[in-house]
Amino acid sequence: MGTEAAIERIMNGVTWADFCDALKRAGNIILRDGSPRDPFDRAEGFRYLSRLTRVALESYIEFADPLAPVLRRPAHETVKIGADNPDNYYQSAAISGQHEYRIRGTRGTVHYLGFGTYAGSYGSSARSGQTGYLEGRDLHIDPDGRFEIILSSDDHSINWLRMEPDTSSLIVRQTFQDRTTERIADLHIERLGTDGPPPPITPELIDRGLAAASAYVAGTAALFADWAEGFARRGTNQLHALDAAVAGAAHGDPNICYFHGYWELGADEALVIETTPPPCEYWNFQLNNHWMESLDYRYHTIAVNHHGAKYRPDGSVRIVVAHENPGVDNWIETAGHRRGTMCWRWIRAADHPRPATRVVKVGAVTR
């Protein structure tokens, strides 16, 4: 859309009206036939849309300028998207493959650190997927613990994070194995060749940004509602591997193999999950609601990872999902939910066994 058209839409209020109308239509995703019909899940669904709206406005209005990138948190304790990992400290910035950038930082002690560049976004009709990836263990780090990363479409020999001409975002994943002892990497991003502050906003920027924000809300909600319904169709209380191409298009980490499923338990039931973890850098299991938001890990134990899990003598692990504590190791709380989605991640695993699942009566769960 041209500058004159954007000015007209701003002046007559159509930009704002279209934004509000698009948000209203997004509510239909919460009301559609495949969505839960009880008041609790529906209330969470509308809260989910409010959270998506908040992060969309940050992404496409407040921090949308690739000429002045800012590392921000796109998912956290009160914004949850696509089975967000409770062990992750997520960061993101708007960038462009038409420019070059530098990240300066110190490594910290966080267990896993990954930098990815991506094209497209949820709700966009453009190509969506990864355009470059750099893992923390491949960084050249100075003796004082500092490093620099160059983001560009042209090759750099050391600490290069590749972009492509249509690259539009950076995502950083910092994954804890133990939040109580580890420190995240301290990171700062800047565009190279900066010659002063960014220009003021324009009608075109706001017109385009509000349209992108509403498309993100609807696109994100629809994408993961489709996933949840698809998991349920494959059978409840089971975990299945997610196609790597699907994960990549949704901006997943290339070093992770994801297993997803849909869970639903009666008041007296427990879901027992068992596997023998192969050698790997990290694994975790987590419980989400229907909308694929991780449950509230601030107040409930809704996830367990390779570091915190209790293992059996033979090296296997058993996880028990139940509404009340059955008095066993690795209990995962449902936090007031009766149904939802679940996720198992393997990072750099020697192989990717499908965890076995079964539903039993809570009283039948023994030590």
Give the SSE layout.
Elements: H1 3-12, H2 14-31, H3 39-62, E1 88-94, E2 101-106, E3 112-119, E4 129-135, E5 146-152, E6 160-162, E7 167-175, E8 186-191, H4 203-233, E9 240-241, H5 244-249, E10 256-264, E11 269-275, E12 282-287, E13 303-305, E14 317-322, E15 331-333, E16 339-347, E17 356-361
Parallel strand pairs: 5-6, 14-15
Antiparallel strand pairs: 1-7, 2-5, 2-8, 3-4, 3-7, 9-10, 10-16, 11-14, 11-17, 12-13, 12-16
Helix pairs in contact: 1-4, 2-3, 2-4, 3-4
Task: Please tag this protein with its features.
5-stranded antiparallel sheet; 367 residues; Jelly Rolls; alpha+beta; 4-stranded antiparallel sheet; 24% helix
How is this structure best described in words?
- With 367 residues, this protein is an alpha+beta fold.
- Among the domains are: 74-187, Sandwich (Jelly Rolls), CATH 2.60.120.600; 234-364, Jelly Rolls.
- It contains 5 helices and 17 strands.
- The chain has helices spanning 3-12, 14-31, 39-62, 203-233, 244-249, and strands spanning 88-94, 101-106, 112-119, 129-135, 146-152, 160-162, 167-175, 186-191, 240-241, 256-264, 269-275, 282-287, 303-305, 317-322, 331-333, 339-347, 356-361.
- Strands 9-10-16-12-13 form a 5-stranded antiparallel β-sheet, covered by helices on one side. A 4-stranded antiparallel β-sheet has the order 1-7-3-4, with no helix packed on it. The chain has a 4-stranded mixed β-sheet with strand order 6-5-2-8, with no helix packed on it.
- The longest helix has 31 residues, at 203-233.
- The protein is globular and about 70 Å long.
